[in-house]
Amino acid sequence: MSQLRRYPIPTRRYPPEPALPSRARGWPKAMGLAGAAVLGTMLLLVVFGPMAWPLAPDAVATGEVLRPPSFSHPLGTDHFGRDMLARVLHGGRLSLGGAVAAVSMAAFCGSVLGLLAGYEDGLLDLVLGAAMEALLALPGLLLALVLTWLLGQGMRAAILSVGVAGIPMYFRVARAAAKKLRRAQFVRAAHAIGASWGRVMLRHVLPNAAGPLWSIIALDIGWSLLHLSAISFLGVGAKPPQAEWGQMLSEARLYLRSAPWLALWPGLAISLAVLAASSLAEAIQDNIDPLRAGWR
Which CATH number fits the domain 106-296, given the four candidates 2.102.10.10, 1.10.3720.10, 3.40.50.970, 3.90.1150.10? Predict the structure, then answer.
């Protein structure tokens, strides 16, 4: 019998991907640091700024109507003579504070429900998953508007509505992480040595599922801020004479040509906050995702 000859199996070699320059690799990190700095500065300004600039945001001055930016009024005045700097600072407390409150509620409720559904599985997972899919069937802004109208309008109702509309996003991420982690060896080992269900969830499952949630929290701050501003802009959120960035934009619509600074400052504040939150979320995602980190 003739001996069979062995031929080497041809393998196709792909050229290595070109490495990005150091500037490109460090760009997301720099943008994330800049976003964190901008968000931190804005939070400090809205918290401590009114103490340094003690003018009341609703103080009417008939002789100072629609004054452009000046030394006495650095951001100008509105159609009632109210100081725009005071209104932007106080409005940031409602806008940014409301966004942080909505994100905190959504992150807590969505993460807890998602971990429970993913780890327990069965009927609980089926019921909660169906409920979240029903919420996701509606656009986030539309759902928040409907809930705000049902809850009686106002800023508190808007914050609660935006928080409820954000729950499904955290639920899906936490649920996927819990389904993956419940089969992990260290979780099985914890159960084998007699660890309680609560200890396994708090000490093993939650810390390993928290990475993707931090990225969503940073991104959700901008999402919640936009939705709160949109609800107030449409007239079902903050009410006059409350100072809120979306409500200030709504009042400035009639004065875009004669007094453009009325819309400039709250619009610029919303844009900076959303851009900073998006940059921070991108940097967090790069740090927690090994594939993206390696690619960069």
Answer: 1.10.3720.10
